[in-house]
Amino acid sequence: MPKLTLSFKGRVIDVFHLESGETHIGRNDDCSISIDSLAIAPVQAVIIPDENEVYCLQAVDEAFPVLVNHQPAQQTQLRHGDVIQVGKHTLAFAEDVMELGAALSQPPQSADEQPPPETEDAEDAKAEPGVLQIVNGDNFGRIIPLKRNMTRIGHAGGDCAMIARRESGYFICFLEGPNPPSINRQPIGDQAQLLKDGDLIDVGGTQMQFHD
């Protein structure tokens, strides 16, 4: 059954399984996915399945844009791994039936324990380390906190990258492998690149969204 994983700055808040019928996303309490944030429209988007169980996302309020994979979207067919952004929240779309809890129960590579979900107010009230959220593959939904000064991502002997935590932010650089990592589908080359909130990183086919 397809599902949407709701996150705020990389912290998983809830998982919603898409039943038959329309799924409304917005601030109103009667929305299927209700998000308590002034950055969200009362009804910002609706997801409509067709008879073949293909799910189509439609934006509702032009004053509150909807992004899919960092691109403005008025109407688009959702595919496995798509990341929807509404306000400061993201919704990761998955077609598989893997339970999120199973992925999060495994210790993430090169990181400490998974932190508990936070509310939006709590997030803004204190500084937290940046995080990566995996948005495809068997580890879909896993959170990797970037607490260390250096975090290696990828597989030894394959495509690898390093994320360095500095005073001015988080920088990603290419370590080894036949293919350099990409940010928002653009290869980073040989120079370290500053990461921005919401950037979509690809290392060896594993896609991760960065949140600071």
What is the CA-atom radius of gyration, in angstroms? 17 Å
Low-confidence stretches: 97-126
The arrangement of helices and strands along the chain is EEEEEEEEEEEHHEEEEEEEEEE
Strand order of the largest sheet: 2-1-11-10-7-8
Give a quick account of the main beta sheet: strands, pairing sense, barrel closure: 6 strands, antiparallel
How many DSSP helices? 2
Which band does the percent of strand residues land in? 35-45%
In total, the number of strands is 21
Shape: globular
Helix content: under 10%
Mean pLDDT: 81
Describe the structure.
The strands form four sheets. A six-stranded antiparallel beta sheet has the order 2-1-11-10-7-8, with no helix packed on it. Strands 13-12-21-20-17-18 form a six-stranded antiparallel beta sheet, with no helix packed on it. The protein has a five-stranded mixed beta sheet with strand order 4-3-5-6-9, with no helix packed on it. Helices cover about 5% and strands about 40% of the residues. It is mainly β. Strand 17 and strand 18 (about 185) form a beta hairpin.
